[in-house]
Design brief:
- The complex is a heterotrimer.
- Chain A starts with a helix and ends in a 13-residue tail after the last helix.
- Chain A has one domain (3-105): Helix Hairpins.
- By secondary structure, chain A is mostly helical.
- The longest helix of chain A is centred in the middle third of the chain and has 31 residues, at 27-57.
- Chain A has three helices and no strands.
- In chain A, helix 1 (3-23) packs antiparallel against helix 2 and helix 2 (27-57) packs antiparallel against helix 3 (70-98).
- Chain A has helices spanning 3-23, 27-57, 70-98.
- Helix content of chain A is 73%, strand content 0%.
- The longest helix of chain B has 48 residues, at 565-612.
- By secondary structure, chain B is mainly α.
- In chain C, strands 1-2 form a two-stranded antiparallel ribbon.
- Helix content of chain C is 75%, strand content 3%.
- Mean pLDDT of chain C is 86; it is low at 1-5.
- By secondary structure, chain C is mostly helical.
- The radius of gyration of chain C is 22 Å and the shape is globular.
- Classes of the chains: A mainly alpha, B mainly alpha, C mainly alpha.
- Chains in contact: A-B, B-C.
- Chains B and C meet through strand 1, helix 6, helix 7 and helix 25 of B and helix 7, helix 12, helix 14, helix 17 and helix 18 of C.
Chain lengths: 111, 641, 492
């Protein structure tokens, strides 16, 4: 399949994530949107990696890249998992303190 | 080595030693010792000067080099003395008259306590030292050193009684006005230096006269004009004359020495010294003559209405200095120097006489409270009368010869000069005899206490008066014009080498219409008769003077207020300068520059306060900004690369 | 003697540095004062000794060089040449005078005070001896920072504000200079050890293009103009002088401002000949206007310290103008005047300090009649005041005469306009003398006592130097002759 579709899908996912982060106030939704953006990036990595491997196999590109880019995806997933652990804990604490997950309540650092 | 060169340095060094001894030992020395040292060193200098004079008279002139004052690759100024006819005459005047005034001071200042007494003599010695440097220097820089040195001493001595604010103001005014002139002098020195690379008189004058001179006519005119600016400051000419009358705040012997006999004639010395430059710059000569003449008449008119005995003498000094400049301006250099000499005699005499009167009157200077002093102070009276006759130009007193020489030369140049000068001479006779009559004739108008106190002054005062009176009478006989006695002008013969190049230049470039003898005699007769009439009129009018409370009116008021020149200067120079200074201080400095500097600081403060508001604490805002940032980076990357 | 001679610059630095650090360790006020005085006298003795070697050609100059940061092409090289030599002598001479004159003044925490003063002296000496741009910059800041602490800890009421202004101002200047130095450094050719070189010789032999010169010139000029200071970069100065303790004011006005003038001569004039030509008249007019401006403002000051500060701005303006004439006379005049001005203004401050210590005020309008009570002080002050307005036979006359001569060589109008400041100088100086010293005494001045022996001593030293240099300036001309020739030809 043409790489174009993967890119378009990834851009769409990423944009949805960005817009979601910007316009929603619910911390959990924002969190999900952040995940969406991360995964958009993952998708691209996988797609490009596959494309590159195909090109090398077809002899169209010099076999310069030895490490497979898909390894990065696992890194990102691990980081995202760690993030979820910390992030969700923060959200839980936040809910306990202010009884809301609205991020606009979280401006106490100001002043 | 030449004998003269071996001892000539003693002339200025002796007063310097006197200054140091009196200055450093002022707490230890007794008054008598101070007086002896102070006068003794001047006497010593006078004796050396006398020796030098006779040496010069036999035809020797010298330039003595002592050390390099400033010596770099581009500049070489030596500490050199020049001894010739002109400087030896001035040396004699300065040390001779100076010695008499020192002696006079020992008595006049006796009431001061011994520390101040020593301080006074130290200053006076320092003055003589500076004045001697001025006339002995062999280049313009040494002259300038003395020039400013005498200004300093004048400042110190005018403000000698420093408790009095008015005196201090007078001292300051004198110094500042002198400085204005000094700037002109300094610029002239630079001009010469830049054109010729030297300031030695000898090199400058020979460079000016040589055929392919580095100095153009414009240069010479500029230099001479600037030098003349210096002279107007030091010698109290229009427009810088107003300090001299105020300078009378100093002790009277100081007025006699500095503000009559010596320092104020420095300008005449300078121009006489640079005579060749002036002769080559006819435009400057006209300026000098006109300024001199205007000063002579203006000061004379003011003197007519002054009531302070010293003020009258001060304005008379300004006026006489004007005559000297007239003489310089019309090329009568010998006449000007001659008048310097006779003026030193009779004006010192008059000031010292006035001092004697003031002393007797217990510090009173207002002539309206005097009168009839003739019978109390006979020596002072006689000598004073002789001085008045001399300044009024009565033959055969000294002033007659010198003033008439100048007026005759003025007539040769332009009869109008003569006419105005003649008018001034009439006024001179008038105000001097007004002074004489109000002081010595008529009835005593002071308080009883003062009358009781009246006495003739002691010998230390009267002896100098008698000697000066003698000189004021006979001093003119060394310059008897040819028309009266063939070959009688011995001074002219003596000074001939100094003015030789000028005379040659005039002979080569101008056609002079020499006065014939009848005309010259006629001019003399005119001035003598005119002066005699105004003298008698004043004598007659003021010997019967009675005190009135009536205010002066009309022109009299203007004259009594000195033509309001001080007020004018205050309005057009001092006040605007003060407001400009205030404006700079309050507006430009504080508001503009400091405002800008502090404004930068405030702007940084303000903008950081504004930027801080971006940290709203809303997570959404931060993310939005992040996104915007990323977008901008994208755009930059994609389109603006 | 050979080895000793070669080590002179280094010894000069060690003496105040060690003593300064010792002061910090001692923590005893009295001892540290003695240490400070002692070390400053030792420094003076060394400095005098160096003067005997000044014209010794055999010694190949009084230079020291150490490997410092070889990989970036900087070496710790210091040396004494004509102009710097004179100023190190001034520095060495001033500090004992300052310490003796202010020995009666009590400072809280005096050991730190003296320690910082000595560190500042080290910096000043280093600036005048540096032969390497990085070393120069290092000492330049070393001289500045102690002064900042001195003023902000021991100063007057508004000290924080004034010192902050002073610091930001001069530091901004320093940074401009640093940018300039680094830029020039990057233009220097590679040496064996490093890609580029900070050595002064490498800088001198560099030929910058016109474009480069034109903007670099302003970087350096502004840095030095702030330090001197030249109108309109001067507003930190009156505040700083007024608020700093007098001993520090003496250091600032007597020596630190000379850093600016000196730096102009050593680190600006030789690099930018074309830029000099281009901007010559602008800067001369700026300086000349600044002279008149400062003189006029000085007429309006009531605080003696501010008055002296403005008069100093006028004098420095003249030096700046004279440098930019690039005439041998002008530059020679600047060199001798740097020395004379340092001596005179320190003398002036001593008098101010003595007055303030006894009466507690510095306001001209509140004083009066001091001459009755303190005749010796008055005589000294009058001599110094007249030296300040350049009366002949005092030291300042020589310098001003030559500088004005240089100006007139460039254009007689420069000299004529600048000359007005001579007149104004007489006005405000005599005004001050009159109002403070003459007239009747008042309640404040009635109890003044005349100065005691150590104050007499330092003032007598100042006065004697004034006259010696004023009558026979030849030794200073000889000392600086080569430097003048170099700069006068370089700048043309």
């Amino acid at each position: 399949m043409d790489i174009k579709w993967y890119i378009e899908l990834a851009v769409a996912l990423f944009s949805i994530g960005v817009i979601g982060v910007l316009i929603r106030r619910n911390a959990i939704i924002i969190f999900i949107c952040v995940e969406l953006m991360l995964n958009a990036a993952n998708l691209l990595l996988v797609a490009f990696s596959k494309m590159h491997a195909t090109a090398i196999a077809a002899g169209k590109a010099a076999p310069t890249v030895v490490a497979d880019a898909q390894i990065f995806v696992f890194f990102i997933m691990v980081v995202a998992a760690a993030e979820v652990a910390v992030g969700l804990a923060i959200i839980v604490m936040m809910y306990r303190n202010v009884h809301s997950v609205d991020v606009n309540f979280l401006n106490r650092l100001k002043n | 080595m030449n004998n003269v060169l071996q001892i000539v340095w003693l002339i200025p060094v002796l007063p310097l030693i006197g200054f140091l001894i009196n200055g450093l030992g002022r707490k230890q020395l007794s008054k008598t010792l101070t007086g002896i040292i102070g006068s003794g060193v001047i006497l010593g200098a006078f004796l050396v000067s006398l020796y030098v004079f006779f040496n010069v008279k036999s035809g020797n002139t010298h330039v003595a080099h002592y050390f390099n004052f400033i010596n770099t690759e581009s500049l070489n100024i030596g500490f050199d003395f020049q001894i010739d006819q002109l400087s030896s005459i001035f040396l004699l005047i300065i040390t001779g008259v100076g010695f008499l005034i020192h002696v006079y001071s020992t008595s006049y200042m006796h009431e001061e306590d011994s520390k101040d007494f020593a301080k006074y003599f130290a200053y006076l010695n320092l003055f003589v030292f500076s004045m001697l440097l001025l006339v002995m220097g062999a280049n313009y820089v040494i002259m300038f050193i003395g020039w400013e040195g005498v200004g300093l001493c004048s400042y110190l001595l005018i403000g000698f009684w420093f408790k009095n604010t008015n005196y201090n103001n007078a001292a300051k005014k004198a110094f500042v006005m002198n400085r204005i002139g000094d700037l002109g002098f300094l610029l002239a020195i630079f001009w010469i230096l830049n054109k010729l690379g030297t300031v030695d008189y000898h090199s400058v004058f020979s460079a000016a006269t040589e055929a392919k001179s580095k100095l153009t006519a414009a240069d010479i005119t500029g230099i001479t004009l600037l030098l003349f600016v210096g002279a107007t400051g030091k010698s109290a000419q229009i427009p810088l004359y107003t300090w001299l009358p105020d300078a009378m705040a100093g002790p009277t012997p100081v007025s006699a020495l500095i503000h009559a006999a010596t320092m104020v004639t420095a300008g005449i010395y300078m121009i006489a010294r640079s005579n060749i430059l002036y002769t080559m710059a006819p435009a400057t000569q006209t300026v000098v003559a006109v300024v001199g003449l205007a000063t002579a008449v203006l000061a004379a008119t003011i003197a007519l209405k002054q009531n302070d005995i010293k003020k009258v003498l001060a304005y008379s000094t300004v006026s006489q200095l004007g005559y000297m400049f007239l003489g310089l301006g019309v090329g009568a250099y010998t006449g000007a120097v001659f008048h310097v000499m006779t003026h030193a005699f009779f004006k010192a005499l008059l000031f010292l006489g006035a001092g004697s009167v003031i002393h007797a009157m217990g510090g009173e200077q207002d002539m309206r409270n005097m009168g009839g002093l003739k019978k109390y102070m006979s020596t002072t009276h006689i000598t004073f009368l002789l001085g008045c006759l001399a300044i009024a130009g009565m033959p055969p007193f000294s002033g007659f010869f010198s003033k008439d020489e100048i007026l005759a030369a003025a007539f040769e140049k332009n009869p109008v000069y003569w006419a105005i000068g003649w008018l001034g001479a009439l006024m001179t006779a008038f105000y001097m005899f007004r002074l004489y009559a109000m002081t010595f004739l008529g009835q005593f108008r002071g308080t009883h206490e003062q009358e009781h106190h009246l006495h003739e002054s002691p010998a230390a005062i009267t002896v100098p008066l008698i000697i000066l009176a003698l000189l004021a009478v006979v001093g003119g006989w060394i310059g008897i014009p040819d028309v009266i006695m063939q070959g009688g002008h011995r001074l002219e013969a003596f000074l001939e080498p100094v003015f030789k190049s000028s005379n040659d230049y005039v002979r080569a470039h101008e056609s002079i219409n020499v006065l014939n003898h009848t005309k010259e005699l006629g001019l003399m007769a005119a001035s003598v008769i005119g002066a005699l009439f105004s003298l008698l009129y004043a004598w007659n009018k003021f010997s019967k003077y009675q005190k009135t409370d009536a205010e002066e009116t009309g022109l009299g008021k203007v004259l009594a207020n000195k033509w309001y020149v001080d007020e004018l200067y205050d309005k057009i120079i001092v006040k605007p300068l003060q407001s400009l200074a205030s404006f700079f201080n309050n507006v430009i400095e504080k508001k503009l520059i400091d405002g800008f500097v502090n404004g930068v600081g405030r702007a940084v403060n303000y903008s950081s306060r504004q930027v801080r508001l971006l940290q709203s604490g809303h997570v959404g805002n931060y993310v939005l900004m992040m996104v915007i940032g990323i977008l901008i980076l994208f755009i930059v990357q994609l389109f603006l690369k | 003697m050979q080895t000793l001679g070669l080590r002179f610059p280094e010894i000069l630095l060690w003496s105040p540095l060690i003593a300064g650090l010792l002061c910090f360790i001692l923590r005893n006020d009295k001892q540290s004062r003695n240490v400070a005085l002692g070390s400053s006298l030792i420094t003076l003795a060394i400095s005098i000794a160096t003067l005997f070697y000044a014209n010794d050609k055999q010694l190949s100059g009084l230079k020291d060089s150490y490997v410092w940061l070889p990989y970036i092409g900087s070496s710790f090289s210091i040396g004494l040449d004509g102009m710097g030599h004179l100023l190190t002598f001034l520095t060495a001479l001033s500090f004992p005078i300052i310490f003796i004159a202010t020995s009666k003044t009590e400072y809280k925490n005096a050991s730190s005070f003296y320690g910082l003063m000595l560190l500042s002296q080290t910096g000043l000496l280093g600036v005048f001896m540096a032969m390497d741009a990085l070393v120069f910059y290092f000492f330049w800041e070393l001289a500045l920072i102690p002064v900042y602490f001195l003023s902000s800890r021991w100063g007057g009421e508004r000290r924080i504000q004034a010192t902050f202004k002073f610091f930001v101002y001069t530091f901004a200047g320093s940074l401009l200079m640093l940018v300039g130095i680094i830029y020039i450094y990057l233009q220097t050719p590679a040496t064996q050890a490093a890609m580029h070189s900070f050595s002064i010789n490498a800088f001198y032999s560099l030929h910058l293009s016109f474009q480069q010169q034109y903007w670099l010139f302003w970087l350096f000029f502004v840095a030095f103009a702030i330090k001197m200071p030249v109108f309109p970069f001067h507003t930190w100065q009156p505040d700083a002088y007024e608020q700093a303790p007098t001993a520090v004011t003496m250091v600032m006005s007597g020596i630190m401002v000379k850093m600016g003038v000196f730096a102009l001569l050593r680190w600006l004039v030789p690099y930018f000949p074309e830029a000099m030509d281009k901007y010559r008249s602008i800067i001369i007019w700026l300086s000349v206007i600044g002279m008149l401006y400062a003189s006029l403002i000085a007429m309006k000051q009531d605080d003696i310290k501010r008055l002296v500060a403005y008069s100093s701005i006028a004098h420095i303006g003249l030096m700046c103008a004279a440098i930019f004439t690039s005439t041998a006379n002008g530059v020679q005049g600047v060199m001798i005047q740097m020395f004379s001005h340092g001596i005179n203004i320190i003398g002036m401050w001593i008098v101010v300090e003595l007055l303030e210590r006894q009466t507690g005020v510095r306001k001209i309008s509140q004083l009066g009649g001091v001459a009755h009570k303190a005749p010796v002080l008055t005589i000294m002050l009058v001599v110094i005041a007249f030296a300040n307005i350049a009366l002949p036979l005092t030291n300042a006359f020589i310098g001003e005469f030559m500088m004005f001569n240089g100006l007139s060589q460039a254009n007689i109008w420069y000299a004529a306009v600048a000359g007005i400041s001579i007149i104004l100088g007489a006005v405000y100086t005599l005004n001050m003398v009159q109002k403070v010293f003459y007239g009747e005494t008042n309640t404040l001045t009635a109890t003044i006592k005349d100065i005691n022996w150590n104050e007499k001593l330092v003032l007598a030293v100042v006065v004697i130097i004034i006259f010696i240099v004023g009558v026979y300036p030849q030794p200073i001309f000889d000392l600086t002759k080569e430097a003048v020739t170099l700069f006068a030809t370089k700048g043309k």
